[in-house]
Design a protein that fits this description.
single chain, alpha/beta, five-stranded mixed sheet, 39% helix, 20% strand, elongated, binds arginine
């Protein structure tokens, strides 16, 4: 073993000190006052999201998680003064991960339902949605009830799954359940199912971006209106209050509307006022 001389140590120490100085110069913040206690590292809230749900949450070419939900939560977090980190989490098991504390929040176009409220808390709603039917261009399906004798694809455990299960019956073998909504839509393209029932925003986006699939959408006003919320583990009142306050602030100062129109092309109030676009969204 080579003895580690004092001189060598001083050399390394000198280099390190210089590097620290350089790094410090590169930063804009003023050096902390010597008497101030070192700030505790800020908690980073882990947000679970099933990032196969464009335009709400998906992965770009660089593998980054992007989308409407992501931007809304980042804007809320900024107002709330909290740090968040998104972790791609399969839909099946996403609420278990929340319950077990592996995720601090779930932001995944989650519909606020009475049943889910039994096991988790929700923020105030941040988006209005409804189920929409996707079929192939030449299909004669005109309403939800027409799916009764057909094969229908859904993403397992979604509100679309619930609606179709109600129509076709719990033990129906004509319901084909997929681990993601895009997989269900691929199956429609290949003829494995006659229709897919899923959230309108995702269906519209998929149909628009897959012209080769030769899909069309069928709206049905019988579907109950849905609203997305941020899901939290029960009893996390402090975080919930922060998120609701942040959400109210981004709605009030126009930043929510800016994100909305970036993804959906119109301010939410206008979209709601125009029945045609509301039905296809
Ligand atoms: N809104 C539907 C529900 O809450 C589907 C959400 C699916 N989200 C996702 N990222 N896969 O059941």
């Amino acid at each position: 073993m080579t003895p580690f001389s004092t001189r060598r140590f001083l050399q390394i120490a000198g280099i390190t000190a210089a590097a620290v100085l350089l790094a410090a110069c590169g930063k804009k913040e003023a050096a902390p006052v010597a008497s101030a206690p070192a700030p505790a590292p800020a908690k980073v809230y882990v947000v679970g999201t099933d990032a196969a749900y464009a335009p709400f949450e998906s992965q770009n070419e660089k593998g980054e998680i992007v989308g409407f939900d992501i931007e809304v939560v980042l804007a809320i977090a900024k107002k709330a003064g909290i740090e968040v980190k998104f972790v791609n989490t399969p839909w099946e098991g996403i609420f278990n991960a929340l319950g077990q504390g592996d995720r601090d929040m779930v932001v995944s176009s989650v519909t606020i339902t009475a049943e889910r409220k039994g096991t988790m808390d929700f923020s105030d709603p941040y988006f209005d949605a409804q189920q929409l039917i996707a079929v192939t261009e030449n299909s004669s399906i005109a309403r939800f009830a027409d799916l009764k004798k057909l094969k229908v694809g859904v993403q397992t455990g979604t509100t679309g799954d619930e609606a179709v299960t109600q129509l076709l019956g719990k033990s129906s073998t004509a319901i084909k359940r997929f681990e993601s909504t895009p997989l269900a839509l691929k199956e429609l393209e290949s003829g494995g199912v006659d229709a897919v029932v899923a959230d309108n925003g995702v269906v519209v986006h998929y149909v628009a971006n897959n012209p080769g699939g030769k899909f069309k959408t069928v709206a049905d006003n019988g579907f109950v209106p849905e609203q997305y919320g941020i899901a939290l583990k029960k009893g996390n009142a402090e975080l919930l209050a922060k998120l609701n306050k942040g959400l109210a602030e981004i709605k009030a100062d126009g930043s929510y509307d800016a994100i909305f129109s970036k993804y959906f092309g119109a301010a939410p109030a206008k979209a709601a006022a125009a029945p045609a676009s509301a039905a296809s969204r």
